[in-house]
Amino acid sequence: MAIELLKESITDTTLLSIVDKVKNEERITSEEGIYLYENAEVSYLGTLANFIRERRHGNKTYFNKNFHIEPTNICVFDCKFCAYSKFLRNKDDFDAWELSEEEIIEAIKAYEGKDITEVHIVGGVHPKMGLEYFKNLISKIKEIRPDLHVKAFTAVELDYMARKAKVGYEECLQILKDAGQGSLPGGGAEIFDKSVRDQICKDKCTGEEWLEMHEAAHNVGMPSNATILYGHVEEPKHLIDHMNRLRELQDKTGGFNAFIPLKFRNGNNQMSHIEEVSVVEDLKMYAIARIFLDNFNHIKAYWPMIGRKTTQLLLSFGVNDIDGTVDDSTKIYSMAGVEEQKPVMTSDQMVALIKGVNRQPIERDSVYNELKDYSEMELA
Ligand code: V47
Ligand code: SF4
């Protein structure tokens, strides 16, 4: 077994004891997590992460059929890493948009008859689009497509909505849930540590508020995802602190579905002077996430962001989910410099990507019920 061979090839006692912990399904500590970032080579991390991935999921690799709607790219906040920062854009810019309710409904209707299972709604934090607007919007979407799972709004958008409507987090979420919202995406988390947040996104909700919002969502019965933004000014201790806080909340609520590392991209933002990290750092980030987050069932690579080739590699570094077919109106990544300018993959292409590295493609719904096994599907 690869993990036994790994033990034979290393002498470092801390790394050896981490192998034993992983084998025995024991949790690693934060100190050990930092030690991995600073001392473990990528093949060691890959072997351990892949061992955990295959113990949990075998070869199964999940994807879903979804599309994105981004109501606006106007934002009241100034995140230094984001092309939508209020310092870079205002509503009169030629490329600013704010979709009306009718336009969003039209976008939903355009998918009528297509076997899409999820719509992901997320965007800039617009000063005028509030709780009432989004409650009505979700109700209308569900009237047209009762079958569609609505995954919507980062904790940052929700925090702003709740404050403006002068309601508590749970009340805000209950209103949206009653309107038909199914879950929360994981955005807005960035890095929870205050000293990093002060440098990269000082004026939006704090790390503590992000966690509080997700706890409230789990309390009202809405599952959620969690993200981390890596590869900028943070250090290993901040990455581990971030994941540790998530691990603690997951122990308490069990409400997280997936963890999604997001690589910082340096196009069109106020941190463009920072060089993007290499693919080796990507592999390390995902592998350590898989090793550290022992109570998260799924580690997801968001392929429009990280690219198709790295996504294939990551399927051997802890990742078991690659998100959706993503017929995408999201510009947040294309503006930040990612290669995928209009990220769409058909389910055939998703299947080919997964089969290309000898994994088993499984279509899932938004809460990870298996819908279809594509193993036997002949590729065109
Ligand atoms: O919070 C913005 C990120 C996030 C940049 O839950 C950037 O299934 C890198 O969270 N470089 C929003 N990242 C998107 C998000 C998401 C995406 C896909 C799936 C799910 C899910 C959630 O986008 C923001 C921020 O961290 N972001 N600008 C940038 N330059
Ligand atoms: Fe606004 Fe979100 Fe971009 Fe921050 S990351 S500027 S909150 S859209």
The CATH superfamily bears the name: Aldolase class I
Give the number of DSSP strands. Answer: 11
How would you write the strand order of the largest sheet? 9-1-10-11
**What is the level-2 CATH architecture name?**
Alpha-Beta Barrel
CATH class reads Alpha Beta
- Please tell me the overall pLDDT: 94
**Which overall shape is indicated by the principal axes computed on the Cα atoms?**
globular
Q: Main beta sheet, described?
A: 4 strands, mixed
Q: Whole-Å distance between the termini?
A: 35 Å
Bound molecules: ligand V47, iron/sulfur cluster
Structural class: alpha/beta
Number of helices: 15
Radius of gyration: 20 Å
CATH topology: TIM Barrel
Uncertain regions spanning at least 5 consecutive residues: none
Helical content band: 40-55%
Number of domains: 1
Elements, N to C (H/E): HHHHEEHEHEHHEHHEHEHEHHEHEE
Write the layout of secondary structure elements.
Blueprint: H1 2-9, H2 13-23, H3 30-39, H4 42-57, E1 60-64, E2 66-69, H5 101-109, E3 118-121, H6 131-144, E4 149-152, H7 155-165, H8 169-179, E5 181-183, H9 194-200, H10 207-219, E6 224-230, H11 236-253, E7 256-263, H12 279-292, E8 298-299, H13 303-306, H14 308-314, E9 321-324, H15 347-355, E10 360-364, E11 370-373
Parallel strand pairs: 1-9, 1-10, 2-3, 3-4, 4-5, 6-7, 7-8
Antiparallel strand pairs: 10-11
Bound molecules: ligand V47 and iron/sulfur cluster.
